[in-house]
Automatic annotation (TrEMBL):
InterPro entries: 3-hexulose-6-phosphate_synth (IPR017553), Aldolase_TIM (IPR013785), OMPdeCOase_dom (IPR001754), RibuloseP-bd_barrel (IPR011060). Pathway: One-carbon metabolism; formaldehyde assimilation via RuMP pathway; D-fructose 6-phosphate from D-ribulose 5-phosphate and formaldehyde: step 1/2. PANTHER family: 3-KETO-L-GULONATE-6-PHOSPHATE DECARBOXYLASE SGBH-RELATED (PTHR35039). Belongs to the HPS/KGPDC family. HPS subfamily. The keyword Lyase applies. Keywords: Carbohydrate metabolism, Lyase. It comes from Subtercola vilae. The keyword Lyase applies. Signal peptide: none annotated. It catalyses: D-ribulose 5-phosphate + formaldehyde = D-arabino-hex-3-ulose 6-phosphate. Residues 2-202 form the Orotidine 5'-phosphate decarboxylase domain. Its EC number is 4.1.2.43. GO terms for molecular function: 3-dehydro-L-gulonate-6-phosphate decarboxylase activity; hexulose-6-phosphate synthase activity; orotidine-5'-phosphate decarboxylase activity. This is 3-hexulose-6-phosphate synthase.
Amino acid sequence: MKLQFAMDTVTTEAALELAAAAAPHVDILELGTPLIKAAGLSAVTAIKKAHPDKIVFADLKTMDAGELEADIAFSAGADLVTVLGLAGDSTIIGAVKAAKKHGKGIVADLIGVPDKAKRAKEVVALGVDFVEMHAGLDEQAEDGFTFSTLLDDGAASGVAFSVAGGINISTIASVQQSGAEVAVAGSAIYSAPDVGAAAAELRAAIV
Ligand SMILES: O=C(CO)[C@H](O)[C@H](O)COP(=O)(O)O
């Protein structure tokens, strides 16, 4: 299982600092949606330039203009770009077209999708590389939120999936047991007093 670090910060400088500390221990460096909205796609270019050996993930969460948005992110240096599973099929097909043009990949983020296992199969048939079983920061704070649902949905989907939303040192083993290809951790790393040590600890928990 790969480890992805979601850098939910808002400046390129902060992201470069986080990436420098965590990079030795992670496979994928994610530029979170707030970072891309605040700093623009130049942040993607800066992270790829600093870490050419890492998979750079641009969390665009595209809902429309799939081909155009994915194209500009790939041109900026992204290796993987997200489109929302809630988007229409034509948006997802457009994003996949841009990925094929660049020799890169699309991830469908299933945040907010009611039946994640069903939509996962549909979007993989449309050509996305894998799906993200995702509970967003707001959903995690809602009463009654249960992390294990994401793992059940992933296992039920029968397709390649990542898991995002509340992964920490207590839950990462269960993510691996669910069959996930990628574990996405944000605050468990960037909020830690020692970012590098937190990333290393998560990496060590993956067997
Ligand atoms: O994409 C995101 C929010 O939309 C986050 O990066 C992702 O959910 C990881 O979050 P966490 O800090 O809970 O690990």
